[in-house]
Amino acid sequence: MRRILITGVGGFIGSNLAENLVTDNNLVIGVDNFSNYPKTIHSLYLSPLLKLNNFIFKNINILDSNKLLRISKKYQPDWLIHCAAKTGVRQSMVNINAYYRTNVIGSLSVLEIVRLINKKTKVILFSSSSVYGFQKSRILNEKLKPNPLNHYGYSKLLSEQIAQYYAKTFNIPLIILRPFSVYGPRPRLDMAPFLAIKAAEQSKPFYKYGSNTNNFRDWTYIDDLIKVVNILLNKPLKSYQIFNVSSASPLGIDDFLTILKNELHSKLNLKLCIKKKKSLTYEMKIAISDNSKLRNYIGVYPTTTFQIGVINLLKYYQQHRKIYRSLR
Ligand SMILES: NC(=O)c1ccc[n+]([C@@H]2O[C@H](COP(=O)([O-])OP(=O)(O)OC[C@H]3O[C@@H](n4cnc5c(N)ncnc54)[C@H](O)[C@@H]3O)[C@@H](O)[C@H]2O)c1
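^ thats the input. predicted complex w/ nicotinamide-adenine-dinucleotide below
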């Protein structure tokens, strides 16, 4: 049985990933300090996991390196999947210190334990497509020089650079993933799919920044990302690798909203009212992933369409509507 330590297990990606890995007969040790959402949401995302055998949860702040080291020494993980982060571009322009503290110093603290337990623990570090920032090319591949536009992107880029240093200097097998706009059940509360549902639910407008020509995103359905991680965990890994991840489902904002609007209406009987706003200077305008490097490495590529992904998200929302409605 593999032992996998996941940081940020109380969040969107961490909780979905942990559930999948536990049911796949791994021992998962999950760490979180419940700092990104109201308690009700963290407990909604984590509570199904707490009932499972092979899952151990520790309420630890990743900045607390002593506690992290203690549990790492105790469980000697084969893999460490680092998801914990301050997330969301817009908040990063307001709450700047917290982003650098968690995403840079926090990542350093996580990488230090890998060095200190000295066990050749392999690492998957979640970075972000935000590291690309402004580029001349519409299609983003791993060879481009990162050029972030916001503090979130900068903090993720710094975490990548520290990780790269650790991988090379201490010979730590390490994969960096740059996911493009991940969505699905147990949603992030700050991202467009959930913000649109919330706006429709509260009969408030959803603010659309830009249009199809200057707001284009490559969406990644959570199950596709999990499949990719599973394949990576089963492949031998010797050195440092960096990969884009998306479901190859790029959409302009208007097409994105048309799909959401139709599904909100047919599945939840909700109307979405849209108001236009000018694009934000610090947000990436076009974020389309070139997936060829990952496709060549893993041999297959999971590609859930945005429409199917949204239907699954709305199903999950409906099951927990009372909890989401209680949020202001
Ligand atoms: N969701 C996306 O679209 C997306 C895209 C690209 C990259 N990512 C990256 O994937 C990772 C997971 O993102 P997510 O969408 O699940 O975000 P999330 O906000 O849902 O989860 C992050 C978790 O980290 C925890 N956390 C924050 N600070 C912590 C600390 N100091 N100690 C311990 N735990 C802490 C939070 O409580 C939260 O549960 C992040 O690194 C994020 O940057 C996400």
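The first strand starts at residue 3 and ends at 7.
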